[in-house]
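Reading a protein record of the kind used here takes only a little practice. The integers have meaning only within a learned vocabulary of local backbone shapes. With that in mind, consider the following protein and its fold in token form:
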Amino acid sequence: MEHINRIDFRDQIARNKRKSFFLIISVFVILILLGYVISYAFDPGYFFVIMIFSIIFSISYILISYYNSDKIAISSVGARYVRREGNYKQYYDLVEGLTLASGLPMPKLYVMNSEQINAFASGRNPNKAVICVTEGALKKLDKKELEGVLAHELGHIGSYDIRYMTLVAVMVGMISIISEIFLRSLWFKGNDSNSKNNSNAIFMAIGVVLAIIAPIVVYFVQLAISRKREFSADATAVKFTRYPPGLIGALKKIKNENQKPEKKINKAVAQLFFANPFTELGSTHPAIDKRIVTLEKM
């Protein structure tokens, strides 16, 4: 009989948190390196102005999205509010039971029209959280499978994943803006061939390469962080339910259904979903098979 190396869900949560932290540090290092090189390629004061504008723009944009993340996400999918006395009693009761077991406050519940099996959570903190599930999830999942999916979403809420990903988005946004401003500024720098420009030619070349490559690199780092958070939420779901087969069953049904890209879902909120609602490359979610294998070891 084949021996299976068991994984403790607590170890899985801690491991993914460490990896996510390391990836965030990587984005920060790229930001500092890009700024350092550009400051030598141009006058440091010039780059200071760029940094100020990029920071203000990035943080303003992200904060507006962050403080309204729940409203934006719900509005973007046209979801409807679920009340205790409504038609979704099992859905409401399962979430209520999980919040009592986990110590989290009760989030607002919503349902969206979609035949896909899916769900997402949003909100800047547990007290402002929302959970939304599809009609397909409520119809196709049994009680234990639905509980596993809902526990996964509560895992995101309890881990402050929206806040975590907002920090990443701020740094990624700053890198993209700085790179764009630097590359566009080269058109206005002219062909001055004085000694200062000659001495900075190497830094200029390095700056151009970094400005082109850095946004691509941090984009994939952002995807990697998102995938690690999904693994962590899966492990947290096991912590809340103590029943991995429920979540495994839901993932297997998602894998086996004839999934087509959801045209009405904005790609900006795709990373919030339990399973990637699109089928193209560059997914914000780990492969379903990998999630199943990991859960089977718990």
User: Anything to note?
Assistant: The first helix runs from residue 9 to 41. Strands lie at 80-82, 108-112, 119-122, 130-134. Residues 56 and 71 are 23 Å apart (CA to CA). The radius of gyration is 22 Å.
